[in-house]
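Task 17 of the worksheet. Students: predict the tertiary structure of the chain below and write it out as structure tokens. Keep your answer in the requested format; marks are given for formatting as well as content.
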Amino acid sequence: MLANDKRDIEDVGGRTLPWSALLRLPQTWGTIIARAFTDPVWFFVADWFPIYLVAKGIDLRSGFLAVWVPFIAADLGNFFGGTASGWLIGRGWTLGWARKAVVVFGGTGVMLLIPTIWTTNLYVIVSLFALATFSYASFSTIANVLPSDLYESSSVASVSGISGSAAGVGTIVAFFLIGRVSDLRQGTATHVFDPIMVVAGIIPFIGMLLVLLLVRNTEATKQNQVREI
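Model answer:
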């Protein structure tokens, strides 16, 4: 028997689901969207935040230390996402609701990127970015554990790989569009990034809504294709 044939023999009760079956499940699309709608925002912040500050007329020499604040906040957000959902589970919440509570927090918090378009104050911008990256990282932590929450070990790698690939493609597309938009708006001075910031704040929120809609117990749960959540 070929290795590929073996992979299709097993599912949650001992058999691995083939990709064709995994992609028919709404839970799989929920995990894909959780990564694809959040990772591009993080890479935008990681690569473009200093450029954004310069576009706002801020001298990086006077705010060099402040540039690191959103990154430190993201580290803390990673810890918070896991700790908060664990804390909720310990107080009687179901796994699904504990995870989704953090997703709601994260998807809503990333929208704090949007108000930065109305200020040129370094400390306000850095504070809003820090809160947004803290929220993003909380969401991202849950996005990374959803495959193991929903699938048996035989399918976790496949779902994680699919969602990671989607996040990579989304990031490539996002960077292309960011470059195009910023080039077209070069003459708008401090407002060159305004539409980009609005989209960066809204996309994770839309992702949050889709995760809430797709990651749920369905007929596939009853058939033991997906774990109950």
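Marker's comment: Residues 16-222 form a domain with the Growth Hormone; Chain: A; fold (CATH 1.20.1250.20). The chain has one domain: 16-222.
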